[in-house]
Design a protein that fits this description.
D-Maltodextrin-Binding Protein, domain 2, 323 residues, ten-stranded mixed β-sheet, alpha/beta, 2 domains, 10 helices
């Protein structure tokens, strides 16, 4: 026969287990990660980072799809808690000045640097049968200049303007996720996409449709780089995409992973330390992480998050002035 004492002891043990589980769950920090559309390389990166953070047992991550960096920055201004987002530094400067895509918005300077992301690679993709082998060949063609309202759209339009092609190219507004099908259906001749290479959406398209990645000449590279002093020349190596037999010279733009002032110092420290301690493992899964190094944090524009600064100081990385 079970005595009342033994019944109480069993009940107490069960309650203790439940309380322990609840305490463990409560100890996990919720974090939202946001970068780009599900067809982009940056979305894949966010999934990798989420799994990495989940593996620590300290975080409960959620990955959200995004229309791109402009949306990420706009949401950073109103998000609370742990919000990790990606953007080129130039958009943070625009948000702080309420200029460009942020004209009419209240100034926002609450982004805080966490770590470096792989550079954005500027791609111009054309149907192989469209007769487009150079940027000049885009004249008279129909092109989607990146996703509507995104950083890529703004950068593409700026590039076209700098190269004197704005009036010559028929640029149409279309979501980037629809560009591949529009090209298959011969509704457009080309589109631009801004993502670390290889970008999944283009990888998939190139296996089902003959495409050309349009190169930039050295002179065109110099003209485009002059638009953003933090950008630089980059090469899409031969064989990156199906049917791409030669290197493609183009340009790249730095990208950072940022939190906000709402992120706790403890969370920022844990996120940044976990990232750098696992960066080599990430690079083993996806090659785009290989070029990410700690010395590049100085180019990310925003003030360093105090929790991140503590980690960088511990490993001997110079923290940019202003922290």
């Amino acid at each position: 026969m079970t005595t009342p004492t033994r019944m109480l002891t069993g009940t107490a043990a069960a309650m203790a287990l439940m309380l322990g589980a609840a305490t463990g769950a409560a100890a996990q920090e919720r974090i939202t990660l946001k970068s780009a559309s599900s067809t982009s390389s940056y979305y894949v990166m966010m999934v990798q980072l989420a799994e990495m953070l989940r593996g620590t047992g300290d975080f409960s991550p959620t990955v959200e799809e995004s229309q791109g960096s402009v949306q990420n920055v706009k949401e950073a201004a109103v998000r609370t808690g742990n919000y990790l987002f990606t953007t080129p530094p130039s958009l943070l400067a625009a948000a702080a000045a309420s200029s460009g895509a942020f004209e009419g918005d209240p100034p926002f300077d609450g982004a805080r640097t966490l770590f470096v992301m792989p550079y954005v690679t500027f791609h111009v993709v054309a149907r192989a049968d469209a007769g487009i082998d150079s940027m000049a060949d885009l004249a008279g063609k129909t092109m989607v200049p990146g996703g509507t309202g995104t950083f890529c759209e703004g950068r593409t339009r700026a590039v076209m303007d700098a190269l004197g092609l704005t009036e010559a190219v028929n640029m149409v507004d279309l979501e980037l996720s629809a560009a591949g099908n529009a090209m298959r259906n011969r509704q457009i001749d080309a589109y631009s996409t801004c993502s670390a290479h290889p970008t999944p959406g283009l990888t998939e398209l190139a296996t089902t449709l003959d495409v050309v990645i349009v190169p930039l000449t050295e002179e065109e590279q110099a003209t485009v780089i002059a638009l953003d002093p933090l950008s630089g020349p980059i090469t899409i190596g031969a064989g990156t995409y199906s049917g791409q037999d030669a290197d493609v010279p183009t340009v790249g733009v730095p990208v950072g992973a940022y939190g906000t002032t709402a992120m706790s110092d403890e969370a920022a420290y844990a996120i940044v330390s976990t990232f750098w301690e696992n960066k080599d493992a990430l690079a083993g899964e996806q090659p785009w992480w290989a070029g990410v190094t700690t010395d590049l944090v100085q180019y990310l524009g925003a003030e360093m998050h105090p929790g991140a600064a503590r980690y960088y100081e511990e490993i001997g990385v110079a923290v940019p002035a202003g922290n």
